[in-house]
Amino acid sequence: MTSARWDDDELLLADLVAAVSAAPAVPEPMLAAANAVWTWRTVDDELLLASLSFDSRLQPVSGLRAGEQEQSRTMVFDWPALSVEIEVIPGRLVGQLVPAARGDVRLLTPDGEYAATATDEVGSFVLDRPAAGPVRLVCRAENLQGQTEWLTL
Q1: What are the chain's domains?
Q2: Residue 47: which pLDDT band, with cuts at 50, 70 and 90?
Q3: pLDDT at position 68, please?
Q4: 13-35 pLDDT, tens per residue?
Q5: Which of 14, 26, 123, 141 could make an S-S bridge to 103, C-beta 3.0–4.6 Å?
Q6: Could you tell me where the beta strands, DSSP code E, fall in the chain?
């Protein structure tokens, strides 16, 4: 049943305006708890850091003559159930998720997302990359999401 006061549309609207405009202040302990929960939203991503298992800059290539400059850099990052292989070439990152999986790959800089793309059916992707500065790869495939540590390409 409605109140006799709400039989008049104008009075009903006035009561609705009063109800939504006079929201009580959020208690400080509740704000602190909400902020604490918000900081934990990415803890799983941070715990699932990929380990660098290969870097062509750290392992000399046999048979390479002294003085020749390598034009690309190859890196492999491993998670327990997935690896990402990348080749760093001027202006781009070319990579593949192993085993092959559809997913998406994002390249982050300290300022935020720099580039993002979806992988194809064999897990391959190409991303533009910044000329300098630290970057991080974030990979999602099926039920796995992980990221690399910050690195300079």
Answers
A1: 4-39 (no CATH), 48-60+69-152 (2.60.40)
A2: low
A3: 54
A4: 888 888 888 777 888 888 888 88
A5: 141
A6: 51-55, 73-78, 83-89, 92-98, 103-109, 112-118, 124-128, 134-141, 144-147, 151-152
